[in-house]
Amino acid sequence: MIQVKLTRSKSGIRRSYFVDFGIYLFLFLFGLFMMLPMVYAVSNAFKPLEEIWFFPPRFLVNNPTMQNFRDLFMIMSDSWVPFSRYVFNTVWITAAGTAGHVVLASLCAYVLSKHKFPGKGLMFSMVVLSLMFSGAVTQIPNFMIIAKLGWVDTYSAIIVPAFASSLGLYLMKQFMDQMIPDAVLESARMDGASEWRIFWTIAMPMVKPAWLTLIIFSIQGLWGTGANHFIQSEELKTLNYALSQILAGGIARTGTGSAAAVLMMIVPIIVFIISQSKIIETMSASGMKE
């Protein structure tokens, strides 16, 4: 009987290794396939103009050059609005919108998750229902509201709507349901802690992966915003809008446009690489994987 158990155990371990190896090999190959568009974009940024238009097209660059990046900075330096102004607008909108979104989503999620009040279920159902609507569907109502408030051609037209993203509220609420025991909050209340103190010193540290994920999603969304519908003043436009104007120069600026696309990708990619483990943990706990 002992020999049979050992044999079964060894065969089970061996089979498990083969399965794990197959899974990791599949994920590795699939990851390489997912990287192909990014590699192609970076390769185009370093291609001379004549090499970009080779037929059949070549995936990798043969004669790398920095001319596309030099042309990009030369074009931006000739603009009547300084390039630094576009950068400041983008950084300010991204930072303010992200901070407000994380704080507001966390506060609302804490109330929905850990407090009981009439209409709680209906309110959360409306939040979930709002996830079904794309930005194109709500674009006209959003513009009408912003125009009514007098926010057109101001930073508020982009920053304030970013506070109310329903995806952030959903993620935070689901994560708090899973990761914050009610007994811990009740113990803090019995010790005399206020709700505000409980939220900042107990709840928020326990859901750190969730709000780090919100930061990543918010940065990715706001960093690439063009805001063409809400902002007409050139001095308030974002970096994405300024770089997109380069592509309007036609075929001659194809290489410059590729360099601009690479620059726009750098910040979201760096932020994602740093915090990718937190995103996976949040998605698993919030139920998004289902």
UniProtKB/TrEMBL annotation:
> Record's InterPro entries?
MetI-like (IPR000515), MetI-like_sf (IPR035906)
Which keywords does UniProt give here? Cell membrane, Membrane, Transmembrane, Transmembrane helix, Transport
Question: How does the record classify its membrane topology?
Answer: Multi-pass membrane protein
Report whether Transmembrane shows up as a keyword of the record.
yes
Ranges in coiled-coil conformation:
none
Location of the protein in the cell? Cell membrane
Could you tell me which residue ranges the ABC transmembrane type-1 domain spans?
A: 87-275
Top-level taxon in the UniProt lineage = Bacteria
Asked whether the keyword Transmembrane helix is assigned, the reply is yes
Q: What is its main location?
A: membrane
List the transmembrane segments. Answer: 21-42, 86-112, 124-146, 152-172, 251-274
Tell me its family: Belongs to the binding-protein-dependent transport system permease family.
What name does the UniProt record give this protein? ABC transporter permease
Q: Which organism is it from?
A: Paenibacillus cisolokensis
